[in-house]
Amino acid sequence: MGELPVQEEDFVIAVDGGLSYCGILEVEPDLILGDFDSVSEQEKLAIEVLQEAIPERIVELPVEKDDTDMLAALKQGLKLGYRDFRIYAGTGGRFDHTLANIQCLLYLKNHEATGYLVDGTGMILVLQNEAIHLNRNLEGYLSLFALGKEAKGVTIQGMKYTLEDYTLTNDYPIGISNEFIGEESCISVEDGELVCMISYCQ
Q1: In degrees rounded to 5, what are phi and psi of residue 21?
Q2: With 50 as the cut, is the pLDDT of residue 1 above it?
Q3: Average pLDDT across the chain, whole number
Q4: Residue 165 predicted with pLDDT over 50
Q5: How far apart are CA 128 and CA 137, in angstroms?
């Protein structure tokens, strides 16, 4: 995953098994949250010690609940006033967890916030009735998918394959594996939601 770019003003939430990644990357979380069903026995013991010493930094959730641990963490961040989120280590392991985390990105959009799923190979974001500009230095691939039934007015500029005012549907993956060509690119959607996946060259 590489180095976690944490700034002094950032608020770091370790979500369940994400606590182990914080340890590997030597990042001290401001909050540890989850039902802790995917942490090691050693980490469970460490969490118990922390609960005694600094209980305000531990939020233990029930195993049976409606919100995923990730969504609960994002809600906590929103409650604290944060509007820009980076989710690390949220795309590996189980596919259902990855899909749930993509839905969490849309949850953030619907609550006037922005989020990115970030890993060592790329990132995922959700666009909703908006345009984004991507740096000309990016190398690799970009794939777009309609998150709802359809996304209208999709335009792609500055990439190998362009589109103009196109309607993407969720049953035809025409938006996969576009290529960066050394130009500033622009992706926009007028009506609907797009999952935007950027895969870096390895």
Answers
A1: -65, -40
A2: no
A3: 91
A4: yes
A5: 24
The H or E element containing residue 195 is: strand 193-200
**CB-CB neighbours of 144 under 10 Å:** 23
pLDDT, tens digit (0-9, with 9 covering 90-100), for 122-134: 999 999 999 999 9
Which pTM value belongs to this model?
A: 0.88
89 Cβ contact list (under 8 Å, min separation 6): 1, 18, 21, 119
**Which pairing describes strands 185-188 and 150-157: parallel, antiparallel, or unpaired?**
antiparallel
DSSP string of 82-114?
Answer: --EEEEES-SSS-HHHHHHHHHHHHHHHTTT-E
Distance of alpha carbon 35 from alpha carbon 62, whole angstroms = 6
Over range 83-90, report the average pLDDT.
93
Task: Find tokens 């594996």 and name the residue.
Answer: 177
Q: Are 127 and 186 spatial neighbours (Cβ–Cβ below 8 Å)?
A: no
Rounded average pLDDT over 99-111: 96
Give me the residues paired with residue 194 across strands.
127, 146
What is the amino acid identity at position 195? Answer: V
Angle (CA) 102 35 8, round 5°: 65
Q: Could you give the CA distance from residue 165 to residue 189 in angstroms, rounded to a whole number? A: 8
Q: How far apart are CA 90 and CA 102, in angstroms?
A: 9
Joined tokens for residue 52: 């005694």
